[in-house]
Design goal:
Radius of gyration: 22 Å
Structural class: alpha+beta
Number of helices: 18
Low-confidence stretches: none
Number of domains: 1
Distance between the termini: 36 Å
CATH class: Alpha Beta
CATH architecture: 2-Layer Sandwich
Mean pLDDT: 95
CATH topology: Creatine Kinase, Chain A, domain 2
Shape: globular
Number of strands: 17
Strand content: 15-25%
Length: 495
């Protein structure tokens, strides 16, 4: 979850200085965009957040012991039961998708081995179905690092009230937390797409336009605290958990820090400018205290701007990276859950990269014919109803996601991958997984709900029967996940 910070709290003087430096760096970023050369060839990459569980399928706050065994590619997350792995960037052309799958498999095996050495098991899932309010109310949930304590303190200070999580669909869950602990339950896969600055707006707009379809196809978090709620419950939980607004500020129209956005953009600068204009700094860490350089070679480090950007959680975030001979810009696609399998992850990546490329090349792109409000509504519908969702799409009106993908978007994704020079066999393999998923109408969320019905049909939330059923479902899920047959092929047999 970002760079290390030196403090858990900050003074008014530190905040004032940070704001001044932040505004200066925004102007510096604008000049850099206009005057400098940037990397103009695209690469792909991903980050993957993982859960640690014990033998009873309960969250196991053991990440420090696991990380001591692992290398620099692996990091902590705010939850002490979470570990993050990073795959280095690579080209998508040729067999790039297969190499991505191979790299993720290799790193997962490394984490799994380290977890076992430390007495834990690994679960690659959007939200642990066995998570309990009692665990998040305890002192065990958080990784003991300044950046996490500082983030928690800053959000609670800004909010001034307890954190309320309120979810309802098939069942209702409401609970007040004294920390931002629910945020830790939201484990995701984050896709990175490096683009030239003059192509960024097209890539970001395309990413926003398809967000609802993405989250619907890949939903994998239907059970929050053992309750049957949104198919991708990470979306509302994340927003509610780190919301700095009181009810009055929400009513006034103040923007949330977990944000879809409010308009199509014309430049990457639009996003950074909005971040500075609309959001106060949460972690006003000085550059010297953070040990960050003013320049990275010939590129401005932009410590203040980048740190601030990392505390506004757009579902599609702009990233400025000064590392290397030339700076580069990338889209960070943050809305997909972890899991269920590596094959599913890479299939989701293939669909995203291919579709963004194809839509960005259209002379009359989808975002010129789809209102931004409709794109936001599509996103929420996809998260709430998953693969059963209906969305709005130009020329089609209201259409089922599965039909939209099968009859229209898969062809576009194939076209985009061909433009990216992806091997045909590689494209067919991974987009074939998406096709199988929409035809079967089965993703991680629908499997979990159906499996729970199989082993604990009619059970009520917060009962022993439901808890036992959830543990059995998670244990079977983890077994299936490691076997790597894509989720649409899974049977409902639960041991």
């Amino acid at each position: 979850m970002g760079d290390a910070v030196s403090s858990e709290s900050y003074t008014p003087r530190q905040r004032t200085t940070y704001r001044r430096r932040l505004e200066d760096e925004l102007e510096r970023f604008d000049r850099h965009l206009q005057d400098a050369d940037f990397v103009d060839h695209g690469t792909i990459g991903l980050e993957l957040e993982l859960n640690l569980v014990d033998g009873d399928m309960q969250p196991h706050p053991n990440n420090q012991a696991v990380l001591e065994i692992l290398g620099d590619e692996y990091q902590s997350e705010i939850g002490a039961y979470n570990v993050e792995m990073n795959h280095p960037p690579l080209g998508i052309e040729g067999d790039g998708l297969a190499r991505l799958a191979e790299g993720v498999e290799k790193r997962l095996a490394t984490v799994r081995d380290a977890a076992e050495q430390a007495g834990s098991q690994l679960a690659m899932i959007g939200t642990l179905p066995t998570m309990t309010s009692q665990f998040l109310d305890s002192d065990e949930w958080m990784t003991q690092e300044n950046r996490y304590a500082g983030l928690n303190n800053s959000i609670l200070e800004s909010r001034g009230e307890l954190v309320k999580i309120d979810l309802r669909r098939d069942e209702k869950y409401t609970h007040y937390f004294e920390t931002i602990a629910p945020e830790s339950t939201c484990t995701s896969m984050q896709l990175h797409l490096q683009v030239a600055p003059n192509r960024f707006a097209d890539a970001w707009n395309a990413s926003q336009a398809i967000a609802g379809v993405q989250v619907a196809l890949s939903a994998n978090s239907p059970l929050f605290m053992g309750h049957k709620v949104w198919h991708e419950s990470r979306i509302p939980v994340f927003k509610q958990a780190i919301d700095t607004r009181t009810k009055e500020l929400i009513n006034q129209g103040v923007r949330p820090r977990v944000w879809f956005g409010e308009r199509w953009i014309t430049s990457v600068f639009d996003l950074f400018e909005e971040n500075v204009r609309y959001f106060s700094p949460l972690l006003p860490e000085g550059r010297m205290a953070a040990g960050a350089p003013f320049m990275n070679g010939d590129n401005p480090g932009l410590h203040y701007l980048n740190l601030h950007n990392g505390t506004i959680w757009r579902w599609n975030r702009a990233i400025y990276d000064p590392a290397g001979e030339l700076s580069h810009i990338r889209v960070e696609n943050r809305l997909l859950p972890a899991g269920p399998t590596v094959k599913d992850l890479v299939a989701d990546a293939a669909f995203y990269y291919g579709l963004v490329k194809a839509l960005g090349n259209q002379t009359r792109p989808v975002w010129s014919r789809l209102s931004f409000e409709a794109a936001n509504d599509n996103f929420l519908a996809g998260a709430r109803d998953g693969i059963e969702a209906e969305v709005e799409w130009p020329t089609l009106g209201t259409v089922a996601v599965a039909e939209l993908v099968e009859k229209h978007l898969l062809e576009l994704a194939h076209e985009g991958l061909r433009t990216l020079n992806v091997d045909e066999a590689c494209a067919d393999e991974y987009l074939g997984v998406i096709e199988g998923r929409v035809r079967a109408r089965q993703n991680g969320a629908t499997w979990q709900l159906a499996a729970l019905e199989r082993v604990a049909g009619g059970s009520k939330a917060l009962t022993t029967e439901r808890a036992d059923g959830l543990a059995r479902v998670l244990r079977q899920y983890m077994k299936n996940s490691q076997a790597d047959a894509p989720v649409h092929t899974w049977t409902l047999e639960v041991e």
